[in-house]
Structure formats: C-alpha cells, structure tokens
Amino acid sequence: MHGIHHSQAELRALAKIPTSCQLSLLRYSLDGSLLLAAGRDGRIHRWRLPSAGLPVPAADVKSADASVSEVLPPLAGHNGWVSSLEISPDGLWLISADTWGRLACWSLTPTVERPQWEHAEAHAGWLRALAMTPDGSCLASCGADGMVRLWNPADGSLLRQFSGGGQDLYSVACHPDGQRLAVGDLRGGIHVFDLRAGKHLTTWDAAEFYKLSYIQEVGGVRWLAWNGDGSVLAAAGCIPENGGFVQGVPSLRLINAADGAVLQQLKLGDNQEGFVHQVLWHPEDYWMGVCSGQPGRGRFFLHRTAGEAPFCLNPQPLANCHSAALHPLGRQVAVLANEGTYGQQKSMAKEGIYPANTSPIHVFELPAPGPVS
Amino acid sequence: MLQPHCQSDQHQFSRRRWLGTAATGTAAAALPLFDPAVHATLLQRSAKQVLFIWLDGGISQLESWDPKPNTEFGGPFRAISTSVPGIHLSELLPQTAQQMQHLAIVRSLCTQDNAHSSGVDRIQRGDPQDRGVVYPYFGSAVTKLLGPNASGLPPYVWIKPLSGGFMHKDAGFLGPQYGSLAFGDGKPPQNLLQHADVSDRFLQERMDIRAFADRQYARGRPAASTAANGFVYSMGLELMQRRQLFDESTFSSADVQRYGTHDLGRHMLLARRMLEAGVQFVKVNSYGWDTHGDNFNGSLSLVRRFDQPFAALISDLAASGLLDQVLVIAMSEFGRTPRVNGHLGRDHWPEAWSLCMAGAGVRRGIAVGSTSDQGTWVTSEPYDIGHMFHTWFTALGINSREVAWDNHGQPLPIAHEHCHPVAELLV
User: Does A241 touch chain B (CB under 8 A)?
Assistant: First the structure.
C-alpha cells in the first residue's frame, strides 16, 4: 500500500473548456482534431481542436484560454445518459452507448449526425462500458444486465454473447493481444475470458471494492485498463466506507496478468472521498487516472507501476474528476471535472431558477518525457 | 367544535383486559400461522391497521414514483408503464408497477424541512403548529385514537435494522405507554423464552406480586408513567405466548424468495405476519437512503430491494383481503434534489416529492398531484405533511377535523388545522 507523496512533476494548465451540462466520459479522435464527451443529457458533445493540441500560452499568461476550441453541434439520439464512448482503431468510427441500452456507431466526419448503425436494446438497461480489440475486428460491451456481448463494428452484427460472471458489469477491457477480455463487476470480481470463444479463464478478486451497506450495494470495479504489453491490468474503484454518501478510499489496484497477484494497491485519498473513475495507459510507460472526492475534491494523477506513489498530481483540487482523455500525440490530457453546487438551495427553485451543474474540461500539458525520479 | 375529545382513560390499556385476551392469543399461536381466514374468525377484526414503511434518509422521487426520463434532471433511468394505463413509474420499480391498481401515489408533496435531524420528527409527528408540546408520532397517535383491538399484541411495533427496545419518545404528550416496541433486526426482545425452572404457576405468582407492588407504587403518582411500566410487562407476557411469530423457519421458502433475503425483505415479511396476527400499527424502517453520492448506482440496489418486498406485500394483502383494512404508507422525510451534484448524488429536496399509499379508505390506482417537467417544483395544489395526516386519519375512520387530543385539559388538533384531507385520495 502506498500513500500520496508530493508531486515531482508539474502539469501546466492550457485551457478550461466550459460545458452546458454534466458529462461522464471524454475521448479524443485519433487525429486529435475532435474532443468528444458523453453527456448526462443524452447527447454526445463535440469540440473541434487544433490537431496538434492546444497552443501553450505564453509564460506571462496566467489564465487559460478556451477560445481555441470550436463547439460543434452535439449528436442526438441517445436516451438517459450517454455512458460510454469508444473510437475504432482506424480512427473513422465512434461507438457510443447509453443507460437505456442503446448502442450506436457514428462516422467521425463532423458533418455526419446520424448513426451508421444502432441497436436500441443492445443490453437490458444500463449499458456501462465498451472496449475494442486493437485490430478493430471486435467490439465488446457490458452492462447492468450482467451480459457481455461481442459485436462486429463494421455492421453492428452480434458475434457472441455470454454471462460476464457478475450481476452488474461496470467495466471491460480488451487485452493488447486481442485474445482476452477482462470484465469488472459490482462486487469486485474481475473475470477474464477468452475473447473469441467466450470461455471463462479466471476470476481475480477485488472484493475490497465492494460493501453491502444496509441494503445498498456500494462500489464496483469502475474501470479496467491493460498496460502496453498486457502484463499488468489496472482496476479502478473505491474501498467503500458507507452507502448513502458513498464515501471511501479512491483506489487503484495493479494486477499481474500472469498469475493475478496484486502488484500494488494505490490509495489516492482518505476514507471520506470517492472513486478512481478511470485509468489510462500512457505509451511512455505510466498510468494516468482521475478520481472524485468529497466535498468537491478530486485528482488527476500519473503513476508508474513500480513507483511507490504517483509522480504527478494536479496542483489544485479539481472537483470530482470523472474522466480523462489522452491526446494522440501524448503531450496533452483533457480532464473532466465537475462544477456547481450541491442541490438543496430552496430559494432558487422558488424563483424559478434552478440551473444544472456542469462538467468543465481542463486541458493540461503533461510533464516532459523522460525518466522521473 | 372540539368534540368528542379522545379521553386518555377511554383507551388506556388495561392489563386485565390485555391478559384477558391472552388465551385467545395462545389459541391463535397454536394454529397455522398466516391463515387470513383463521385470523378473521378468531380476531373478528373490524379495526383498521397501518403499515408504515419509512425509507430513512430520503428516497429519490425521480428514481421511484415520479420519473422524468430524458429531461435535464431525469437521470439515467427509464419510466415504465404500470397496471394502470397512463401511470408510469421508474424502471427500478418493475414489480410494484404490476400492483399499481392497488396503489395511490401523491406526487405533490411540498414540506418545510430539508434537514434529517428535524425533518424526521416533523414529518412523523405531522408538523403541527408549535404549541409548546411534543406531538405523538403517527404510530402512537393511531394506536391511541383507534384503541386496542382483540389481538392482544403490542399495538405499535417497529421492525428495524440494528437495535430494538421500547421507544417511548414516539409517544410525545400521550405518555410513554404509547411508544413503540422495536424489534431490532426483526428479532423479539431478549430473554423471551420462559426459563425452564419457572413454572406457569410460579410465573403467575410473580406477576401477581409485581402487580401488587405496581399498585402500591402508583398511589399518588401520575397514572401515565406508572401505567407504562405495567404495559411493558404485559407486552412481554403476551410476546412470550406468541414468540412463534418471530420464528423465521416457519416462513415458506417461496415467500422468503418473493420478499428477498436482504434485511428489508425479511423485515417486510415479518411485518406481514404482524399484520396478520392483528398488530395495529407496524412500522418498518430501512436505512441508507440518504444518497448524496452515487445516487443512481445506489438506487439500483436500494429501490429494487424496496420494490421486491413492497410489491409482494401489497399483492399478499390484496389477495387475502387484508388490504381493505390495512392502510399502507411508504415514504421518507423528504425527496431528493432534481439537480445532480458532482459526486453524482442527489441532495435533500422537500420542495417537490412523492409518497405511495394503499389500502384502507384509500382510492386505488391513482396518481395525485403533479410536478414541473423537470421535477423541480409542484405544479398542482401542494400538500404538506398535515394534509397527509388529515387524509390518513380520515382513511382510518377518524374525523380529523372534529376529534381533538385532550392534553390534560388542553384541546389540541390531531392534524394541522391549516390543512385538510385530500379528497382525491379517499374512497
């Protein structure tokens, strides 16, 4: 177990992009020209950006500038919340999912606003996560219905389906070899399958990520990601303290893919905070992740598998970070935070004014490449 | 016009009267449990009963009774149709939706308090005008106003997680004997079994001595406090005779599965048994509904684990005919904010929220009141908890505008005088 030490590398804020609603997930297009966000308003929000990334402001400019981004019309057609986004490896297609079970495939050409194909009920209810094989031949989806479904991304045809091993599946990740699939469930189970045969290979236990609080089931393996060579699986979640407020220790568990041994469990806050919501692998051999916290705390962190603690943290808390996306050139990261108030201001409703909270996007320049002490 | 006052001595539980029914209770215990026909014959119950389900912390109306799918604050879930055309519930209530023909939903609650610490008390006491006295909880009020029935069982029981015991504070100015007897985790009070070395005759002799001592002690002391002491002993004796009520092994495995093996399922199944046995007011508490964080994932388990036993219970009460005399209420101290906070929770919202009721005196298959498209505020006549107290008393056959409490000569309205029964909800 490791705590948080002082950061040793610095992030530089490039821009804060305002949004009109709360968002759940960010993705860059593979050419870097589009930033896409899954909306909790049932829409996919889009910004056109310079392909090379946002310009670095002059040293004497203190405030970040979002004017370099151009807002494109959002993609409509989903219901409830858009819950997941995935980009095809050829960079041409965006796959999206929502909490009513819809799965849709869109061309990333900015002028196209109708899906190429879609399934209104790809899952029964909340479709939680998507993952695609590196060769782009298979799209995996999982949901609160406990099912894993494999799709042909070219035409949306169903290739295979099987029970994912848990009653509510939160996360899915395709191994870099394209042969295996890891699925994380509510109760801390991480189930590994042979992707093509749908055969269960093993289950790794992360039961610490789960708690039954009275009748509320709390926790879950909220995100899974493999490192570049597939030797390590990162599982993100929380060690829950309670239901209701749902507070706990935001945690990242690194698992040896060879034998399921826990290499490290990183705690990214105290026991009154929230979840590690997402973790990504950076090609320069480190993990990037985001977590939420109470009240309004949140972190973006960089961490090496062998490190004792994150080597970089955002200098100021970012309220409740829920997602991060890595720019394809690897030098910039977009972090989704939350902004606004807790809800119970009575007078505002009396006056007929009751604005929603929003999810501003913070774009940072990552630390320079190279070894970090 | 304040008449007739409900005189406290009219409804005072007489230990003699109580013990006089014990023989009936014992006979009932020897018969198969849960046979409504047996109970109907044995108890000849005409008195009303209440099942009060308290979801402590605040169930989200948007994830239950008043869904607003695909709106700004509607959240991730769908609405589903119910057995009543035109009424929709959250998809998290699929089984309850099939019982909608028995239910009445109120979607236009607008109450005064957004804090748990004060809100729970204000809601359960009916939020009366402040006259410097502590009003009774609804359960205490009902048992006082309806008076004892023939079951011989404690009139006001509370099935809850965690610890149990006698909760006198519920009673307010009615006096401690109108408090609730709490069964912690659905278990009976401790030491309920008669010790093997204590014969029935010896037990009776002990009780006679205790009664004598009680009478001596009561001389010159306020009747309310000394009566409560004897009352608790009487309850204990009765429960010793009726301890089979708590034997979970006698529930059918089918019922256990239908209600659910989680706490709320087990407690609701026990509540059904208590109602069938004739308990006048059964309160069931579920904790953990204060979903300031991760409200939507939380609701997946919370609301579904309410849905399962609630629907089973409504179905069972309807099938047995008990629903005609049992008033069922499911509610919290307030609802939850339309706005979603950064921790994906909903906060406290007394401005526009919902409850569900069914049974005695209540119209069935209706949804009363409305909220704005985004669920932010009430767009029909807003109802405070006082309106609900008037409605519930009326449904139980108590004229809430004429009957008054007699608090040592001080007449007090039993429900807020600025509110009224909601006619739409009443048969």
Answer: no
Answer yes or no: is A18 within a domain: no
Contacts of A83 in chain B (CB under 8 A): 76
**Residue A240 is encoded by which pair of tokens?**
């829950």
Domain containing A247 equals: 26-316
**Distance in angstroms (rounded) separating the CA atoms of residues A352 and B376:** 9
Contact between A206 and A188 under an 8 Å Cβ cutoff? The reply is yes
Regarding predicted confidence, which is higher, B51 or B41?
B51
Q: Report how many Cβ contacts below 8 Å link chain A to chain B.
A: 143
Please tell me the pTM assigned to this model. 0.91
Q: How far apart are CA A108 and CA A95, in angstroms?
A: 10
| Inside any domain, residue A363 | no
Contact B56, B289 (CB under 8 A): yes
ipTM: 0.95
CB contact under 8 A, B77 and A99: yes
Residue A330 located in a structural domain: no
What is the total count of domains within chain A? 1
Question: Domain containing A213 — which CATH number?
Answer: 2.130.10.10
- Is A216 in Cβ contact with B293 (below 8 Å)? no
Answer whether B72 touches A (CB < 8 Å).
yes
Token pair 């870099």 in the structure block, residue: A176
Shortest CA distance from B372: residue in chain A: A352
B60-69 pLDDT tens trace: 999 999 999 9
Interface test with B, best of A322, A346, A351, A354 (most B CBs within 10 A): A354
Burial classification of residue B13, based on how many CB atoms lie within 10 Å of its CB (0-12 exposed, 13-18 middle, 19 or more buried): buried
pLDDT digits (tens, 9 = 90+) for A88-114: 999 999 999 999 999 999 999 878 889
DSSP string, A251-291: EEEEEETTT--EEEEEE-S-TTB--EEEEEEETTTEEEEEE
Residue A348 lies in a domain: no
CA distance A353 to A345: 10
Tell me if A201 sits within 8 A of A180, measured CB to CB: yes
